[in-house]
Specification:
Length: about 475
């Protein structure tokens, strides 16, 4: 991808909707590119308001004014803003172009783009892909839905940069010209149905990642995930499949003790399985996908292996959170959908206690029943989804309620026996109780730390 030679916002009235991380980055970029920028948010106050005004951004807070949007030359949406919002739809109907922040930034990027999407595993795969490419000597910027917004990286973009971009359905649904050199779809299952009208709309958003690719580009797909293969059915780029279990004649697979890439003519060993330090077996698929991308880029196996050996996982993704009284605690707050929670539960043995719940966003909690039953697990239900969890699981596994994270951690510990595991695997968004999944995970870890302090104190006094 190279920067668009024709796209300019010089002297144009641009309204950025949503003043979270991506919206703030987009507003700053637009001002620097000569636009007259209004940043609007339904909140009455936002972080960094004084700095934004000093930079030349006009703020319109407490509402999205319909007349401001209708009079714009361009509207840029933050990922958290649904494009179907009535004031947005009205402006579009009046002829105002509406794009997302990812689309905006991509029009000014230089170098090439590796875009990674999927229902689960995006952040792990994106991070590890970036590290593999860096280890291979490439100039890499990692961002998008993880870390820095893409708009914050435009000024750093050079002809030899490879942008490794995590792309969510919210970002992709408002793309127009976004054109990855390599597009990765890790998997696909129902998610975000609190935002998308149905699974078909969610699938269409994910499929936007392939829309502008040409035959010389690449699509990396999970051969063991038929729904994602269906989403990518119309993709025009050349394909590289990866698999954990299938013995593909061509593609990237696990063969014995190695991740290998097979072609019709040869087999190349890429990364030894022993180099993987991640906790959950399902996370191995993210390593395989990252190795597939790195092999297309031309990274040497030795560099891939160095990156994998140094990678112990991401915060909030099956992250070890401590041990108290012989009970292990694991933070998988990023498991925000049923499929991700299912994978987390499968990572552990009998005697599991799973903390599940939050704001429901689609899927079927009954899908968790079989892996929970197989592990004689108990569920601690939290948040708005508690009634749905009971309805789906009562009679098959024990379900107990907790009012907040502190109560959930202590109840889980009380139920657990030494040698057992407590995993936070919410299968829901966090927005009923927390600002985001990261705050939820941090609070979980804080409560585990407090529990540990209480336990050690009780053990000390008990032994006196």
């Amino acid at each position: 991808m190279t920067a668009s030679p024709t796209f300019s916002v010089e002297g144009r009235r641009v309204v950025v909707v949503g003043a979270a991380r991506s919206g703030i980055a987009a507003a700053g970029l637009l001002v620097r590119r000569g636009a007259s920028v209004t940043l609007t948010d339904v909140r009455d106050t936002i972080d960094g308001a004084d700095d934004l005004r000093a930079a030349g951004v006009r703020l319109e807070l407490g509402r999205h004014d319909a007349s401001t949007l209708r009079e714009a030359d361009l509207i840029v949406l933050s990922p958290g803003v649904p494009p179907a919002q009535p004031v947005i739809a009205q402006a579009r109907a009046a002829g105002v172009p509406v794009i997302g922040e990812l689309e905006l930034a991509s029009r000014w990027l230089r170098g090439r783009v590796v875009a990674i999407t999927g229902t689960k595993g995006k952040s792990t795969t994106t991070t590890l892909t970036g590290r593999m490419l860096e280890a291979g000597g490439h100039r890499v910027l990692v961002g998008g839905n993880i870390g820095h917004a893409l708009s914050a990286q435009v000024e750093e973009s050079t002809d030899d940069t490879i942008h490794v971009v995590e792309a969510s359905s919210f970002q992709l649904e408002v793309t127009d010209t976004f054109h990855p050199w390599i597009a990765v779809l890790l998997n696909f299952s129902p998610d975000h149905l609190d935002r998308h009208a149905d699974v078909g709309e969610y699938a269409a958003a994910k499929a936007r990642i392939f829309a502008n690719q040409a035959p010389g580009d690449w699509v990396v797909l999970n051969a063991e995930d038929p729904p994602s293969l269906a989403v990518a059915d119309a993709a025009r780029a050349q394909r590289l499949l990866f698999a954990m279990q299938q013995d593909l004649p061509e593609g990237v697979v696990i063969a014995g003790e190695w991740i290998v890439r097979r072609t019709a003519r040869a087999e190349q060993a890429l990364v030894p399985v022993a180099a993987i330090k991640l906790l959950g077996r399902h996370l191995f698929a993210d390593v395989v996908a990252a190795a597939a991308v790195a092999s297309i880029v031309g990274v040497a196996p030795e560099a891939m292996t160095r990156a994998v050996e140094a990678f112990t996982g991401l915060e909030h993704a099956l992250e070890p959170a401590g041990e108290v009284g012989g009970v292990r605690f694991v933070n998988d707050s990023k498991a925000t959908n049923v499929e991700a929670a299912h994978r987390a539960i499968e990572s552990f043995g009998p005697g599991l206690v799973a903390i599940v719940g939050g704001r429901f966003k689609g899927g079927d909690f009954a899908d968790l029943a079989a892996p929970l039953e197989a592990r004689h697990a108990t569920v601690i239900a939290i948040g708005e989804a508690r009634p749905l969890i009971h309805a789906a699981l009562d009679g098959r596994v024990a379900v107990r309620d907790a009012a907040d994270m502190s109560a959930a951690v202590r109840l889980a510990f009380a139920i657990s026996a030494p040698g057992g595991t407590v995993v936070l695997a919410p299968a829901c968004s966090s927005f009923d109780m927390f600002r985001d999944y990261a705050e939820r995970g941090r609070v979980f870890k804080q409560e585990v730390a407090r529990l540990g302090q209480e336990w050690r104190k009780s053990e000390h006094w008990g032994g006196v």
